[in-house]
Amino acid sequence: MERLTGLDAGFLYMETPTQHMHTLKIAILDPSTVPGGYSFQGVKEVLAERLHLLPPFRRRLVEVPFNLHHPVWIEDPDFDLDFHVRRVGVPAPGGQEELDELVSQIASHQLDRRHPLWELWVVEALEHGSIGFVSKIHHCMADGVKAAELLVNVFDTGPDAIAPAPPARPWRPEAIPSGAQLLGQAIVAMLRALVGVPALVKRTLGGFRAVARRRRSGAVSPPLPFSAPKMAFNTALTPHRWYVSTSLSLEEVKAVKSALGATVNDVVLAACAGALRRYFDARGDPVDRPLIAGVPVSTRTEEKGRLANSVSNLFASVPIDLDDPVARVTAVHEVMKGAKEQLNLLGVEMLADWSELTPPRPYAALNRMYSRWRLADRHRPPINLVISNVPGPPQPLYVGGAKLLSIYSMGPILENIGLNITVWSYLDQMNFGIVACRETMPDLRSLVGYLHDALAELMKAADSRRS
Which of 52, 70, 84, 139 is flagged as catalytic? Predict the structure, then answer.
């Protein structure tokens, strides 16, 4: 039995019928090298022999009576692999658009909390004989970096790799703890957390004072929350997700980075700014103010390797108001540098430390009320969108003999923050997964073409700098 951290549990409390807090990983594989050929049963057998490398996949939630404290994980006594692994096909020709439509449907339904919080959809009938894996995982189980670590545990580095060694000790389910046991442990944990409150308050106040001094110094600082313009996707959510995907060249992104003295993440943010500028301009929406993006950053260390979520957030300007692509990169680079300095002044653990004190019942009730009454429609958004960039595997990977061709990720959208762009790199590609509500951005697929246009514009600017 293991208690969720406040950060992990927060993703549970945020969930409502319209605000789904799962993430998706979409893998496309070539099964032509699988010994004996592909079969759905073979997929389940390969997954079964590797479950010990995926510890969260056999754990289910148990809530504390009266929601007095964060829930606990136990090894599910009713675990059934067949419940979690599903088989589905897509209509011809089975290309990226058909797969994206299926992913949109899968993303539009919440996970069942009576079971471990994941599903794996095996997608057949993709073009070129490929097979797709769409894994839906609740955010309380893993952030982007943790998901990448789990992925490495499951995949092999060659097509002929031997099956992983069995676990040193056979897996054993746990009995569901009694209410009295859960209450007793919860009270002890709460008292321990409360002991640290005075020191936490002191650290927090010191961090805010340091940030205020820095902002007064005139240094470039990140934008403040609630200073963002309200855009079409900054509304109350619906349950219906609309997902699209595309890939950009990692080599080209790195070439722009080197030519303009920036980072890969700066170029990603600038490319998103260029694409969104085109998108809003085509709609006739104003592009005279920068947007604000939340940019998740990993705070994971070796000591925190077991944690499901170890992440904080930066606020970054997305300069859709700048016509010059080089100026966009420069603006992003300066703001991101300031945002990182500000995060260090506040303390990278401040969000996680305060989340330990989150009262489960009031916080969950507040989220449900906010969603049900569509309060997001009545005020400006704290930020406009989320843009996340996770470094993926740089070498070819295989599972059960099948070669991984590409992998995409989809993060959650939030009330009033209805656009999420998540990037995972793999080999020589940067794979973009973009999600919004179907009702607020029915033309979301146009953003795919605009991303390619934005990178081409940056490449042209980079070539001019080098010549």
Answer: 139
User: Residue 147 to residues 126, 309, 329: CA-CA distances in angstroms?
Assistant: 24, 10, 29
Whether 61 and 69 have beta carbons less than 8 Å apart is answered as no
The residue written with tokens 């070439």 in the block is 255
Q: Is residue 405 part of a domain?
A: no
| 221-239 burial code (b ≥16 CB/10 A, e <16) | bbbeeeebbebebbbbbee
pLDDT per residue over 370-408, tens digit each?
999 999 999 999 999 999 998 888 899 999 899 999 999
Whether 139 sits among the annotated catalytic residues: the reply is: yes
Is residue 198 domain-shared with residue 179, that is, in the same domain?
Answer: no
Separation of alpha carbons 17 and 374, rounded Å: 12
CA atoms within 13 A on the CB side of 449: 7
Gap between the Cα atoms of 11 and 24, Å rounded: 15
The answer to whether 438 and 238 have CB atoms below 8 angstroms apart is yes
Each residue of 301-316: pLDDT tens digit?
Answer: 777 667 778 888 899 9
Closest C-alpha to 266, from 87, 111, 387: 387
Strand 291-298 to 385-390 pairing: parallel
pTM of the model: 0.95
CATH of the domain at 145: 3.30.559.10
Query: Residue 386 pairs with which residues in a beta bridge?
Result: 294, 420
Residue 154's alpha-carbon distances to 143, 314, 421, in angstroms, are 17, 31, 25
Look up the CATH number of the domain holding residue 306: 3.30.559.30
